[in-house]
Structures are given as C-alpha cells and as structure tokens.
From TrEMBL:
Highest taxon of source: Bacteria
Family matches, as Pfam families: HicB
Listed InterPro entries: Arc_rbn_hlx_hlx, Ribbon_hlx_hlx, Uncharacterised_HicB
UniProt name for this protein: HicB family protein
Organism the protein comes from: Actinopolyspora saharensis
GO biological process: regulation of DNA-templated transcription
C-alpha cells in the first residue's frame, strides 16, 4: 500500500472531515473512495442515491399493485389538452 500526500485548502479539509464524521468513516476512507470513483469514472447506485437523498433531489414513489386500466388513465388525464400531440404533428417530416 502506498501513501499519498495532497495539499487541500482549509475549507475543503473541514468539509471532508465533517462529511467523514457524519458518515462515521475515517477521512482516509472517504478520500480513498472518492479518488477511486474519479479514476473509475463511475459511482455506485448506492452512492448516487445517497447523494440525491441528502440533497433533497431523490423522489421515492411507492408503487401500486397494478397499473391503471385505459378508462382510469383517460379519466385521470382528461383536460390536459393536446399540446404534446400538436407539437409532434407540427414537427413531423422536419427530421
């Protein structure tokens, strides 16, 4: 295992320490995971969901047992207008 020394500004260091503390993790563990994600170019679904949840951007919807039938769907969308359909019709042939 290698050791890496990096210079970071005081504010970033404070934020890293606070984040590690709030997740009950060591600063080393947090930084190692972050560097791995950068090098791999990906983030796990769990990490993405955690970030979305902590920023208030995650919307979790409880599913129903079954999808609405056509009559229910028509009743729920009645009055929405034809805006999307009209826009699609207007753009047909321009692609």
């Amino acid at each position: 295992m290698r050791q890496l020394i990096a210079r970071v500004d005081d504010e970033l260091h404070r934020r890293l320490k606070a984040k590690a503390s709030s997740e009950n993790r060591s600063l080393n563990e947090l930084v190692t995971e972050a560097l791995s994600r950068v090098v791999d170019g990906s983030a796990s679904l769990r990490t993405v969901r955690q970030r979305a949840r902590s920023s208030g951007m995650l919307v979790e919807v409880e599913g129903t047992d079954q999808a609405p039938d056509l009559d229910e769907l028509e009743a729920e969308t009645r009055g929405f207008g034809r805006g999307v359909g009209q826009a699609l019709e207007a753009d047909r042939g321009e692609w």
